[in-house]
């Protein structure tokens, strides 16, 4: 009888160790993926002149003033070969685009 109890104890110890290992592995598999840092794509000179139209179409897609937005965006893109990502803001990605000002000192590029 004593031998049977040691065998059963050893079996349960091995079973507990195996379950613990599987649970630890499952926790690793279920953990959220590490955050990916998004690096702005592009920068000055990252576009070719023929790519400006598509980039400006997206940049001006959310405005109600599409015609002037497209006009100035394309003009700025032809000069800087860069259009900031998104439909608004992010001008720090393209310093040329950001720093080109009107005679009054306002931003020239949308």
UniProtKB/TrEMBL annotation:
UniProt name for this protein: Putative gibberellin regulated protein
InterPro entries, A to Z: GASA
Keyword line: Signal
A Pfam family: GASA
Protein species of origin: Rosa chinensis
UniProt family annotation: Belongs to the GASA family.
Domain of life: Eukaryota
Annotated signal sequence range: 1-18
């Amino acid at each position: 009888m004593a031998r049977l109890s040691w065998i059963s104890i050893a079996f349960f110890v091995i079973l507990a160790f195996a379950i613990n290992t599987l649970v630890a592995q499952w926790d690793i598999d279920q953990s959220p993926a590490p955050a990916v840092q998004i690096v702005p794509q592009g920068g000055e000179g990252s576009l070719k002149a023929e790519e400006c139209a598509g980039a400006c179409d997206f940049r001006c897609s959310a405005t109600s003033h599409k015609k002037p937005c497209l006009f100035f965006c394309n003009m700025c893109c032809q000069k800087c070969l860069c259009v900031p990502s998104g439909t608004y803001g992010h001008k720090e990605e393209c310093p040329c685009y950001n720093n080109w000002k009107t005679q009054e000192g306002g931003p020239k590029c949308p």
